[in-house]
Design brief:
The chain is α+β, with helices and mostly antiparallel strands and 251 residues long. The protein has helices spanning 2-62, 75-91, 95-122, 141-156, 172-180, 205-209, 212-250, and strands at residues 128-134, 160-166, 191-194, 197-200. It has 2 domains: 2-203, Glutaredoxin; 211-251. It has 7 helices and 4 strands; from the N terminus they run H-H-H-E-H-E-H-E-E-H-H. Strands 2-1-3-4 form a 4-stranded mixed sheet, with helices on both faces. Helix 1 runs antiparallel to helix 2 (75-91).
Length: 251
């Protein structure tokens, strides 16, 4: 009889411990899930404010004089905003909310593309436009690789304005851009449009830099670096001469 009571108490204790562990695990899981959702909402609210601010900047730039515009106008803000949208998308906690943010950001990209086209025609700035269409639905390893290549080129050549668009995003404005750009469902992703020339499929860094456009950019970059080096050398010589003159006077 005593053994029976002992076994019963042992099983009850094990059951209570198991139940406690289960309830605790569920509570912890819900806690982190709620934290993740709240974090995503905060990111979403922040991005929404950035988008509204960016939209206002567009209106200001469109009516501004050419003196206020250069090749780097607004590109840093767009790149930073794109990184935040990508981060929110990777969280995959609230897909509907993230997709809404992504659509707003995509509209902003298209608006920037149109604006810079107008500005380049009106002002003495010559940004180089690169439209990059990729896929997030299918397993597109080449799209990921192409993104890394374009990131490198954008850092190397500030004149580049790279616009990355998710081909499968359900957005009428994007559908219109795809149609205007001559991109169809039969095309192999990724697709690049560089200065109105279309390139289908992944392009290696070497292949892109072999294009006449990038060869010209490299020549310009080398010339700018040579000029900068010459200016630094001149400034250094002038400083040395002043030091020599000062030493001669003191003597």
């Amino acid at each position: 009889m005593n053994n029976y009571n002992y076994d019963w108490k042992k099983y009850l204790t094990a059951l209570l411990i198991t139940a406690f562990i289960f309830v605790t695990s569920v509570a912890i899981s819900n806690h982190f899930s709620n934290q993740k959702i709240e974090s995503l909402r905060l990111i979403g609210d922040s991005i929404s404010i950035d988008i509204l601010s960016s939209d206002t900047q567009f209106d200001l730039l469109e009516s501004s004089s050419c003196e206020a515009v250069d090749n780097s106008t607004f590109s840093k803000e767009l790149n930073a905003l794109g990184e935040r949208v990508a981060f929110a998308e990777k969280q995959r906690t609230n897909t509907e909310e993230v997709q809404l943010l992504k659509k707003q950001y995509t509209l902003l990209l298209i608006k920037d593309y149109i604006l810079m086209k107008k500005i380049s025609a009106r002002c003495e700035v010559e940004p180089i436009f690169v439209l990059y269409f990729y896929s997030n639905i299918e397993d597109c390893a080449d799209c990921t690789r192409q993104g890394h290549v374009l990131t490198y080129l954008r850092q190397k050549y500030p004149q580049l304005r790279v616009y990355a668009f998710d081909y499968h995003l359900d957005l009428p404005a994007l559908s219109t851009l795809l149609s205007i750009s001559g991109i169809t469902t039969a095309d192999i992703l990724p697709v690049l449009i560089i200065e109105d020339q279309q390139y289908k499929g992944f392009m290696e860094l070497e292949d892109l830099e072999a294009l006449p456009l990038f060869i010209e950019l490299q020549v310009q970059k080398e010339a700018e670096e040579a000029d900068k080096k010459a200016e630094e050398e001149t400034a250094k010589n002038e400083k040395n001469n002043k030091n020599l003159e000062k030493t001669a006077i003191e003597e």
